[in-house]
Amino acid sequence: MRKYCIKPATLTDLDGARAVMLDTVYRDFGTGYVPRWHGDIVDPAGAYLGSGRHTLLVAVDGDGQVVGTGALDSRGPECPPHPRRLAERYPSGETAQLRRVYVRPGHRRRGIARELVERLVEFAAADGGYRAVYLHTDPAVPGAEAFWRSLGTVVHDERTDAEHPQSLVHFELPVGR
């Protein structure tokens, strides 16, 4: 069994983290890089390392390679593209939004994503200013919806929303897990 170190990202981890993120949006999501959705991937230092309320965690294998990422910031979901009721329920500043919880395919099913999420939720709880942990996922990505359902509560499923007929599922996780 491989050993992994999960830690806050440093500047030397950013190229590896960016590679994991870009590989995921191209391979798993099929969207490729979309500037309005993925600006944090290009500048993870600016997005996550410049604020004490944001963080980027990396999972590093025994060879020193970044094989997983998990991030948190204080921006709630925006309307549009998300429904107004979600933007109102999860306002920026009070909401810890989980982002970029990605693990390279060869390292999945080893507890890495679950540990990344646990550490991100601990970070949110330690901050003291977050009242909710929120995320959305694309259920078309194999395993994504089941993974998040095992950790949180569905607060909105766009697949059943006539006003916002997209394909995302939105979740809330307890801040004090």
Keyphrases for this structure?
6 helices; 177 residues; seven-stranded mixed β-sheet; alpha+beta; 7 strands
Structure notes:
With about 180 residues, the chain is an alpha+beta fold. It is built from six helices and seven strands, in the order βαααββαβαβαββ. The protein has helices at about 15-25, 35-40, 45-50, 85-90, 110-125, 145-150, and strands at about 5-10, 55-60, 65-75, 95-105, 130-135, 155, 170-175. Strands 1-2-3-4-5-7-6 form a seven-stranded mixed sheet, with helices on both faces. The longest helix has 16 residues, at about 110-125. It is globular. The relative contact order is 0.15. The mean pLDDT is about 95.
Task: Summarize the topology.
Blueprint: E1 4-8, H1 14-27, H2 35-42, H3 44-49, E2 55-61, E3 66-73, H4 84-89, E4 95-103, H5 112-127, E5 132-137, H6 144-149, E6 153-157, E7 169-173
Parallel strand pairs: 4-5
Antiparallel strand pairs: 1-2, 2-3, 3-4, 5-7, 6-7
Major sheet attributes: 7 strands, mixed
Order of helix and strand elements from N to C terminus: EHHHEEHEHEHEE
What form results from the Cα inertia axes? globular
Task: Tell me the number of strands.
Answer: 7
Our measurement of the CA-to-CA distance between the termini, rounded to an integer number of angstroms, reads 27 Å
Number of helices: 6
